[in-house]
Amino acid sequence: MHIGELSDESLGNLYRFAALLSGSAENGETLFAGVIEKSAHRASELRSENRTIAMLVRRMREHATMPTGGSSPLLSHPEPLRSAVALKAAALLGPDEIANILGGTLPEIPPALLQDSATWSRNLPFSSELLTRLKHHAHESLTTAKPLSNPILIAGALGIALILGVVIWLMMQKRSEFPGRETLMEIVARNEAMSGMELESADAPMGELGDWFYMRGFEDYSVPASFRSLKAVGGRVFVFNDRPVALIAIEEHHTLGYIFNAEDLGVSIPAHEWFVFTQGEWIAAARQEGPMSFMLAFRGTDAEMREYLKKFPNP
What we know:
By secondary structure, the protein is α+β, with helices and mostly antiparallel strands. It has helices at residues 8-22, 25-38, 40-44, 49-63, 81-89, 95-101, 111-122, 128-140, 151-176, 181-189, 210-214, 302-309; strands spanning 200-205, 231-240, 243-250, 255-261, 275-279, 282-289, 292-299.
């Protein structure tokens, strides 16, 4: 469905969720608008309002940063509790749907915190002007291209588009295939079963976690230079096919990072090239530097990952 077809109540509840998550009414509207703008194509592939809402909620969680200002009662609370309370307070989804979004487990929610959050969100200034702006954001996300009227031009344009589409598809397929791809897809698929409780707190830039991982049995920790300043909020070491894998929870974009010995897992990627692939609702990008591979994953699209990677130049 188109985002512009969401009911006024759903738009209002999405805005309240965004405000709770980001700390303030102003931040909430900014987050709402940014996610709506980037989600029109994905929403058009969904057939129900609930699935569209769930998709938008996931993307708001991915794009939200830890609030540093505002008056939301959730300012000092970590994920996934922050999202769980915000979802229930905004009355967006049922318990099973919330648990699914949070990775399968619904954290215990203090009643007083839920009550304070619900009261805060209900007291947000929600005027007819704000609703009009939210609708405008939703309707602006629709594509409005003027159709061609000449049948010959239409046929020619479609033919060219088809040829270009096939060429691009073949190139993309080639760039997403590499030895060990299935292994990495299995690793990313494990994210669906994670609740966040598996992670230990690790509040430091990624480049400073070598000793942290060494103390947990991972000796070959190495992060590409352009990622070393990204803030990590958690991590763990797990075993896959009898080999250790370092997992880092990155604050930016709700991203997960993985580091592992490529040869140990049968992975071979040309040096310094990103290979992007999809696993369910997750998009992942992997690259190799020497014997070690580095992989990123978050819920999103191929286009979002490629845009994200532009921020980090290759060495």
